[in-house]
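Reopening this ticket.

The earlier resolution said the output was attached, but the attachment link was broken on my side. Pasting everything inline this time so it's all in one place.
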Amino acid sequence: MKSKPVIALVGNPNSGKSSLFNQLTGLRQKVGNFPGVTVDKKSGTAFLNDGTEILVVDLPGVYSIYPKSADEQVVTDILANPTHPDYPDLAIVVVDASNLSRNLLLFSQIQDLGVPVILALNMLDIARQQQLDVNAVRLSMQLGVPVVKINARTGEGLDRLKQAISQFSGKPIHGNQLFYDPELATTTTDVKGLLSDVRREYQLTNKYLALQYVIQHDGFSFLGQPERVGLDRLIEKYNFNELDFQAKETIGRYERIVEVVREVVTDKRPLDQPTWSQRIDRILLHPFWGYAIFATILLLIFQAIFAWAQPFMDGIDAGVAWLNGTLHESLPEGPLTDLLTDGIIAGIGGVVVFIPQIAFLFLLVSLLEESGYMSRVMVLMDRIMRQFGLNGRSVVPLISGVACAVPAIMATRSIGSWRERLITILVTPLMSCSARLPIYTILIALVVPEKTVLGFLNLQGLVLMGLYLLGLVAALLAAYVFKRIVNARERGLFVMELPTYKWPRWNHVGITVWDSVTSFVWQAGRVIVAISIILWVLASYGPGDALDQAENRVRQQSGNLPAEEVENRVASEKLEASYAGRFGKVLEPVIKPLGYDWKIGIALISSFAAREVFVGTIATIYSIGSAEEGNDNTVRQKLAAEVNPETGGPMYTPAVAYSLLVFYVFAMMCMSTIATVYRETRGWKWPLIQLGYMSVLAYVSAFLVYQLLK
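Inline output:
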């Protein structure tokens, strides 16, 4: 039994469905998987005007109930299966008033399935800008369902929509006759006899639902093999052609839709006059200026990440250092104090300091998405992607990979061709995700001077942009290689509706930034706390009395050295003699050609859990390896002060720093991504191939960079 009514939001992509979801649920949202399917679903609670609590489910955007990808299949699986846990008590179909004809196709199909429906008429302001006038009352009379005018961007009409939901009686909302009669679609097949057999066999009362059992039985997850075999027999018995029927059905629906639109829409537009969005697209999608503008926007984004975030980062950095020093002074000496300051706080502080940069990255990307420009980027980049054998839809996961590879890989489900989807999965982790950002920024700050180029370009921002572009170039080249290996001869189609340009909705931008930052901090924080504690234990203890022997040896050899230097040498020798130090020493011969020592080796291994753990691990290791009073210097200062025992100079020279940067551009170093690839490819073959080629690419590239720059 459902504890509260389930309201499903359904609509075409870019119809405003997700905006309405955000307006209804606010921050009362959660992300999970649809039952039995690895497709993300967003759900949240909302309250009607009388205080009744409802569960709102945001279904993936689709153009019709005939799916072309895994996420689209979810919609049909739910709406055609009344026993599904997410089957809605009521469906709110969100339609774009500026393109009513196309949107009503999906509405008509859902209505004919027998699902109770309310039509939410959105984007009326855009329709008015295009000199289109939609009569909502007349539309309601034509369709036989409630039609509510809303503005999902501003929340206008939300109370009226909630009132319509409250007045819903629990019965299907449609007129005396169905929008479309399946029996009229063809004369070459005895559809009436076919439907009669299917409805009787599967106890279905709805003719159109019975028709979907016939057409989509191979794709429905809720039908078992015996049911599929039985439906195949009926298809053969009546010589039923599914594709032919779909084509005739679509034509028949649009004939009815054209009649409805003619009755309810008044078009005042002069013939052949382009809209203002089309005028802007002539520039932004231009073969030359489009790429130039996109490159300029990227440049501004990476400049802003350094320039705007730096004051906030300095404040957090100083605050963490102050807290660490204060705790060192006020708490009694002992293992628990060391664990708290040198382990937990040092590890967490190494990541929390990068929250401003991550927040600004998501803020700027969200603004591009909200404005409608990101869709243009996908179309623009499609011209390049096809040269490397990728499907145009590969652009979406690759761009999403800048935030996180896990949802980006899951986004490949929209790619119809398995080979092209596999290639996209294999190269997406090469795109620099937000977890790499802490590593990039701290190493860039160490070796790249904070100065301007050409009078206004921040040099550190230019280097950061170069790393992101390096990841993109590597992804394209790797895709070209895999195209030859996997032999991807299939060509997929890239079809994307370009939304009109809009002013960003600041509340939605805020929700996006908040969710992204909290998700980053929460997911990374748990891993970092666990690893910091483990590292502190491994770095603070050793086999037998090895640490005591190391201390005695240093004190005997110290002679007349100052006490502070003696203590620092003792801390360093004890760290080297610890379990962590011994493990790092075993690894050191492998990574020494890259310019790394055993301390960096420990950080490399620990960052397999998550890339951002590298900075936290370095902070923990260097906190334990130093005996400075208060130990309150920042992570950046600790890295800058680290001495190479072989040369006596700084450990983090430009050669070492750039080698590390290039290594992390190419290295997989993410257990979550490996697990996601395993789940999406249903086996260990491709995750291991991916881990292998990226590890070799990272090692060889880092080796070449270090050898050239040292």
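Reporter confirms the inline version is readable. Confidence is low (pLDDT under 50) at residues 31-38, 173-177, 627-632. The chain has four domains: 6-166, 182-267, 290-486, 526-709.
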